[in-house]
Amino acid sequence: MLPIPAAFFLFLSFFLDQTTAYNPNKSPSRNAVLLSNIQTLTLHANRKTSHRRVHAIPQLTCVGPSKRICSLYTPDVMRCTNQGYDYDENDIQWTCTAELPPEFKLGSTEVVCEGYRDSNDPWILKGSCGVEYRMLLTEEGERKFGYMTGGALDDRSWAEQLWDFVKGVGTIFIVMGSFIALMSYCNRSTINNVRGAGGWFGGGGGGGWGPPGPPPPYDYHGRYTKTETWQPGFWSGALAGGLAGYGLGNRRSSGRRTVYTPSSSGSSSAGPSNWTRESTGFGGTRRR
């Protein structure tokens, strides 16, 4: 057993070592580097970052504005250059460049790195940086792929779209069924009232005590011909109204969006051009 002074000094040295290890001015490891000391980053598609505390991420990640636009083209290489810091020397600003077809241009870019000890650590893990970028359309891209830049409907899964369709059809049948039941009830009530008021007697009132006259002839054609000729119109009108209501609701749920028609020079199945030119995006830094 260690004497008390020796144990105390051992504990104190251990505590000082831990304090020194978390000193932001001192590198905690050979694999740690200050982000402000990194001048350039070269990032590749289909590659992952290094990782220590958290999971690895892709070096290049498209974050919008639409999944369908992101799927059209992925740059092979992106190079980001340190442009200095903003308000804090650890908040580095970057310009990132990549070769893109003329239909696309880089929007905002954000360099994301793993803090060595935590997400606030100024020291980052070497090789842990990736870029999240936005892929925007140029004027040429708008003419060719602008129809893909719709609202929320653009990124809904097939299951969500199917469920919206089922809800719409269900609403149509509920409305139609309720209307048919109401019309049937009103028609039955009208027939009963006519029979009760007229009866099967000669004039329905007053006079002598003589025998009643024969019942009036029952006109089958005069009473039902109008209903039979009206029924197809009712079905077609109800169906058209229901479909119109569903279409209007579906349009409101997906938000206002501009519909583009592909130009004659391209089609919805046409891909990006074969030639590329340099495009630049700007952004800051985020630690994970």
Automatic annotation (TrEMBL):
GO biological-process terms attached to the record: calcium ion transport; regulation of store-operated calcium entry
The keyword Transport is annotated on this UniProt entry: yes
Localization terms from the record: Endoplasmic reticulum membrane
Any one Gene Ontology cellular component term annotated for this protein: endoplasmic reticulum membrane
Region (Disordered): 249-288
Biased composition (Low complexity): 262-273
Keyword field contains ATP-binding: no
Record keywords: Calcium, Calcium transport, Endoplasmic reticulum, Ion transport, Membrane, Signal, Transmembrane, Transmembrane helix, Transport
Location (main, coarse): endoplasmic reticulum
Membrane-crossing residue ranges in chain numbering: none
Signal peptide bounds: 1-21
Topological relation to the membrane, as annotated: Single-pass type I membrane protein
Pfam family for this entry, one: SARAF
PANTHER family named among the record's database cross-references: STORE-OPERATED CALCIUM ENTRY-ASSOCIATED REGULATORY FACTOR (PTHR15929:SF0)
Similarity remark: Belongs to the SARAF family.
Protein name in the entry: Store-operated calcium entry-associated regulatory factor
Organism: Coccidioides posadasii (strain C735) (Valley fever fungus)
Lineage of producing organism: Eukaryota, Fungi, Dikarya, Ascomycota, Pezizomycotina
